[in-house]
Design goal:
Distance between the termini: 22 Å
Largest sheet: 3 strands, antiparallel
Radius of gyration: 20 Å
Helix content: 40-55%
Number of strands: 3
Order of helices and strands: HEEEHHHH
Structural class: alpha+beta
Strand order of the largest sheet: 1-2-3
Length: about 120
């Protein structure tokens, strides 16, 4: 059974790589279309629907991050990002005054975020 899951994961990751770069659209506007709410972004040339797979990869990426790869996301957050933050805080390797300077305090975390979750 593990071999099937690994094969499925490999196939899913291959599909994701083939989709790169991703087209992700966000919005703050919801319109009513045929009696159902639709999240849209209006442009001069037309309307982009956030949840329409032909317009945006948002749904696919949300599924990957929050379902099939949630374990990877948790592991990465715990093992890399949080541990880096914790180690720096415990060792005192922060810039003087970093407690009051949020930009300095978050630099290691921002650097850790530059690595992709999906390999």
């Amino acid at each position: 059974e593990d071999d099937d899951e690994d094969e499925e994961t490999v196939e899913e990751n291959s599909e994701l790589r083939a989709m790169m770069p991703f087209a992700v659209v966000g919005c703050e506007e919801v319109v009513n279309e045929d009696g159902r709410p639709v999240r849209v972004r209006n442009y001069p040339w037309g309307v982009v629907e956030v949840d329409n797979d032909e317009h945006s990869d948002f749904d696919r990426l949300r599924y990957v991050l929050l379902n099939s790869h949630i374990g990877d996301l948790r592991d990465r957050t715990q093992n890399d990002i949080y541990e880096l933050y914790r180690t720096e805080k415990l060792s005192g390797n922060t810039v003087a005054g970093a407690a009051s300077d949020n930009s300095s305090a978050h630099q290691p975390i921002m650097a850790a975020r530059s690595h992709p979750v999906v390999a």
